[in-house]
Amino acid sequence: MALVFGALVFTGVIPLWTRIQRPDLLKHRVTYDRLQLTITERGTLESADNSDIVCRVKARSPSSTISSTIRWVIDDGTQVKRGERLIQLDDSGLHEQLKAQKIAVDQSRAAWVSADTNYEIIESQSRSDIASAKLTLDLAMIDLQKYEKGEYIQQQREIEGRLMIARSDLAMWEERAAWSSRMSKPGRRFVTTAQAQADEARLKSAQIAAAKVAEEKRVLDQFMGPRTLKDLQGKIDEAKRALERVEAQARAKEVQAEADRRAKRSIYDQEMSRLYDIEEEIKKCQILAPQDGLVVYYVSEQSRFGSGSQQGIIAQGEPVREGQKLMRIPNLKRMVVNTRVHEAMISRVRGEKWRKTGFSEAINAGLFFATDTLARLTAQMTFDAIRDDFLDAHRSVEQLKEADGQPAHIRVEAFPDRQLEGEVKSVATVASQQDWMSSDVKVYQAMVSIKEEVYGLKPGMSAEVTIYTDSARDQVLTVPLQAILGSVDMGKKRRVFVMGPDGPVSREIVVGLSNDRMAEIESGLAEGEEVIVNPRVLLSESEKAALGESSPSRGGSGKTGAPKEKGGKDKAGAGGKKK
């Protein structure tokens, strides 16, 4: 009977409070107002300026991504100083490689020194062979000149002299033989016959001698002289060809020796580079803190929201991969909230807008027109090497901020009584990794920066973010969320208590959009009417249970608020505007 009576009271059939004053009731006059739309989401605190600790040790083999295992690691949440050890990776395998590599370096160095010495020997021998060949050519040319301008002329003159003597002797013996022949004839008998015969023999001998010398001259002029000249000229030509062969052989030997020396030097440099790499890998096994701060083990977005694979565990004895993020040392003075916005509302969220100034492109263009090629290349390589660090330190030089992000309010669960000011810093352009528990829901990552510096904020703390969008509904009937009764099962229909002549009366209304304080009324109320802001005091416990009521949550996300879309987003609607 009591339940029936209560239901009648709730529906307004029996005005129980007729002419009874209720000082405990809070009233609100329904008016036309501007409804600022908000988006409320939950997220976690992160540092806007993180020093990521990444495993830089290379993988052990091309077929494996494992670099090493953790031998020792500092505890999560430890305060560290710059240069303090954070992680020690197992480097025993690298030390074995270092020993073997040192032997390889010594062997390659010995081969390089031997090749370098051999090159010097070949170079010296080549110079000696070329000098010897040139000397042979010079001697051959001298021999030709000596014979052509000396010996040959001398031989000709010597034969000509002997020929003149032989001809003179021949003429003398011709006269003597003729005289002896006349004087030995009968009647004269001035010369004996024997003497005349001897003179005749002498004449023949002189003729033979003169003919012999003449023949020697003919042989010299026609045969021996030209033959000797050609022989000496041939020796010169052969000496020239020998010199060319020696020079070509010397060049070939030097090129071969130089190639061998360079190859051995290249092998030595490669072995040394490999040695340096191993030493660097050993150094990378000990990871030190780059700055003062708090150690936070890295948790990826995928593992944070329940998806992804191959999420490395940061613990002693666990394997690590090349490029794996191990931990972070955040800057606690600059914090942001990492939250996710439903795809239905992402178009309303706007982050900071930046425009590139073209600073780095202008520098590269200026360096390109440098007159000195070496200076240009050196300057460009230097700028490319320091570009990222320089732009990180002087971001305003490379980018110009054109517009701020949307304002936001942040409440951290660790500081529930404090509301922090913030703004949307960035909004992802693609959907985030889907949660395995709600794979049909697409959300986008949004980073909301906290403007003020708050002591005690730490990464990983839970926070609630209320983003004030640019969208707003002007001149709509609004009532406080606390005045609305009902649940999401009722759709857009809700109930409120309206003050009538005889007291509060329950009335059905249709609600539209809402924010964290007010809701739009599409129908059921008129301007100037008064609604009860604390209607729960008018309900019995059974009525509260029947309506499924709970305490209104801040931001209008509870069951008593205006209808929301899936994921806690404001449902779009129309109506209730002032005409």
Structural notes for this entry:
By secondary structure, the protein is α+β, with helices and mostly antiparallel strands. 41% of the residues lie in helices and 26% in strands. 22% of the residues are buried. Residues 1-19, 305-309 and 549-579 have low confidence and may be disordered.
Share of helical residues: 40-55%
Q: What is the CATH C-level name of the domain at 95-284? A: Mainly Alpha
Here the CATH topology of the domain at 95-284 equals: Helix Hairpins
Structural class, by secondary structure, is alpha+beta
The largest sheet, given as strand count, sense and whether it forms a barrel, is: 6 strands, antiparallel, barrel
> Helix count?
8
Helix-strand blueprint:
Elements: H1 2-11, E1 27-29, E2 31-47, E3 50-54, E4 66-73, E5 79-80, E6 85-89, H2 92-183, H3 193-284, E7 286-288, E8 293-294, E9 296-297, H4 301-304, E10 319-321, E11 325-330, E12 335-342, E13 353-356, H5 359-368, H6 373-393, H7 395-398, E14 399-403, E15 407-412, E16 415-427, E17 443-450, E18 462-480, E19 493-500, E20 503-514, E21 518-523, E22 530-532, H8 541-547, E23 564-565, E24 569-570
Helix pairs in contact: 2-3, 5-6
Features:
six-stranded antiparallel beta barrel; four-stranded antiparallel sheet; disordered C terminus; 41% helix; conserved putative lor/sdh protein from methanococcus maripaludis s2 fold; 579 residues; Helix Hairpins; alpha+beta; single chain; 8 helices; disordered N terminus
